[in-house]
Amino acid sequence: MTENEDDILDRPAADETHDDIYDEEGSVRHDFLTMVGAAIADRDVIFLRQNVARLHESELGDLIEAIQPDQRLAMIRLLGDDFDMTALTEVDEAIRMQIVDQMPNEQIAAAIGELDSDDAVYILEDLDDEDREEILAQLPFTERVRLRRALDYPESSAGRRMQTEFVAVPPFWTVGQTIDYMRDEEDLPESFTQIFVIDPTFKLLGAVNLDRILRTKRQVKIETIMHATNHPIPAEMDQEEAAQLFEQYDLLSAAVVDENERLVGVLTIDDVVDVIQEEAEEDLLRLGGVGDEELSDSVAETSRSRVPWLAVNLVTAFLAASVISLFEATIEQIVALAVLMPIVAGMGGNAGSQTMTVTVRALATRNLDIHNAFRVVRREAGVGLLNGVVFGILIGAIAGFWFQDVNIGGIIAAAMLINMMAAAIAGILIPLALDRFGADPAVASAVFVTTVTDITGFFAFLGLATWWFM
Amino acid sequence: MTENEDDILDRPAADETHDDIYDEEGSVRHDFLTMVGAAIADRDVIFLRQNVARLHESELGDLIEAIQPDQRLAMIRLLGDDFDMTALTEVDEAIRMQIVDQMPNEQIAAAIGELDSDDAVYILEDLDDEDREEILAQLPFTERVRLRRALDYPESSAGRRMQTEFVAVPPFWTVGQTIDYMRDEEDLPESFTQIFVIDPTFKLLGAVNLDRILRTKRQVKIETIMHATNHPIPAEMDQEEAAQLFEQYDLLSAAVVDENERLVGVLTIDDVVDVIQEEAEEDLLRLGGVGDEELSDSVAETSRSRVPWLAVNLVTAFLAASVISLFEATIEQIVALAVLMPIVAGMGGNAGSQTMTVTVRALATRNLDIHNAFRVVRREAGVGLLNGVVFGILIGAIAGFWFQDVNIGGIIAAAMLINMMAAAIAGILIPLALDRFGADPAVASAVFVTTVTDITGFFAFLGLATWWFM
Prior knowledge:
homodimer, mainly alpha, MgtE N-terminal fold, CBS-domain, Tetracycline Repressor, domain 2, 3-stranded mixed beta sheet, 22 helices, 6% strand, transmembrane (chains A, B)
């Protein structure tokens, strides 16, 4: 390592700042990657300890994703005990699996013992049963019991995401006793923003925010300053539902309780932020007709995951084609129709997508429900009508001029108007209907909406032309 | 009010639970709406105080959105001082504007004096200059100065979203002094999770989380337990960038500093969650070709906001149509081509949308950058090739069988393969290029991608057919 590199990188841990390892675009800096790569090749443990081990877990995660796949395990081996396993919760699932599969179970067990329970569960839940059991067997009893209990809750439930470390005190303690307890106790969670109040059976009685404790005189009893935990989260609750509670009530953390209302853990906002991100991402990907795919998936995996919607689209495309085939005789006479017909279908598809996007989003954010559905449908129909008239006239004029035929202009204008209305109504009713029947409106809306606009577009345009000309 | 309703609704304030006012689908319960409506009509202030005033601000916001527009102001008037103005930060912008416009400025000023500064700014920033000045003039001096300063920062900046209330202490204070200060001081923020350490000029020196204070003995000096604030947020920073820092470093709150690194406020995770939601929503809406529209916008507003993309689509649709018109002679001979050509274009469009969705999302979450772009392009081309072969053969077989012509089957299969490859490459290169040139990749990708797949689809299919048959 040269003197110069030393200057750039060798700062004390407290000074880790955002621009340290990232370039202006938020990617890991290229010169940093080169240096880390060289250090791995040279087995330069000192450099890695000084410059990699000190990174924040999310920075380390980004670094792991950015280096070459074959460098990843080598770097983790070189770091040894200095490797912060939490970083693995910050990388793509595929990369995490790859790394964990190749690490010896003993090392994973040792590292997992150091993690907060929610991070430990995050890593353990992806392992196959055999490896998981082997790792759990190597953990201390209480740790093992805690993790097993969390892993017993359903996937994507609050119980899986919760942290089993928390501070809980009896209601008759005073503020002074509570503060003294926290000063003396070694085994506290790494950070927390509220403490819980429980009875001897661990039943949840309330919670106190830390600022409340700090403002209160020592002799005051906890029960007089605790607040009811308005939103204790059942461990079985889906993480998405829990996230909605956090958003709605601006929670920082919330108690997680079992079926007997006993406190089993705490769900914190940082995990919830990840859930919110994932959910938004899922909506977007589903609307685009792709599943839960990651950039690190292979070609074969990606191809396979995209086949279902392409296959559905294949059926609907032939459906639309069969509508066209009804009018072969007309097209044979007036080829201009074949030239123009995709315009009507395409514009309708676009308008339908616009309405559908707004509808899916409104359903996801609960801004649309049975009470205002009728008003929203009426509004969308109005928008369809207005834009249908505008673009009908425009397209009619252009097409009439192009083919020097006022009849064709009139027919395409009328077809356009009909299809824009159909697009508006399909764009709202299809997601609403899917939602009503318990299906995710983001998943199948696009394909149904374009089917409606294709078929309506072809039928209206070719049908009107046949009726008029033939 | 009957005895029975009383049972359902008249619970003590501490007991407000999620299922109180919502039905199973998360909408405000219909019977509750009816009762509130009746109470407004009857001017039943007691009912409203007991059942509406006690709601959480977000519940009150949902209620305001759910009742009839003409009931909203009436309810707020009846509630008087018991109306929690914060609820207005939880409703649609259009509804908020409507309500605030009709409220007398004196009442707004009185209510705003009670709010946290971030909520006050949220409401003030939408008002026109005259009303805003009139309201500000009625506030106490310090309050006015604080709000003015926040309002001076650019829209959507951290300075606008920050709270100007915070706890700051000098570094030489002990933990004991700090706790005593908090016990005695009346004017503390409503809730907080960390306190800041400043020098006499308000320059930020560090921060201490509350749990750290509670674990530390009274005689210990603050400067020995404070941590460097690794991510102080410049007040001018865009809120989206600030939100990314929160996500990356799992922050609960962060200091906001001015250009001289003096502490001016604190940004909290609950505001950041809203920003994250908004940004995800924006991406989704932009991909769907709609702007920042709200369900409460009028027909005319909505129509207008959707016109730009429909207009662009109009141009591209005619571009595609002009490709078809090149082959009019061929279509006249073989009408089957007109029937089948939308299949090639449509399937390509769908495949392109899939790739584009993944690309836009990967760019937004910074999983895709210049370093891995080449690998991702290669992978997408592979996916396009694989799915092109699969669906080419499938469609070729169906089309050949349908029109009893093996030539048509072969031609559509080849065109399909070409278009799927084009779709894959356009689906990734177009968003990447837009991003490279500083444009939002979500905004215009869809229209460009479908233009490529339409034109390629028509050209490949009709071109191959012309070359083969003519």
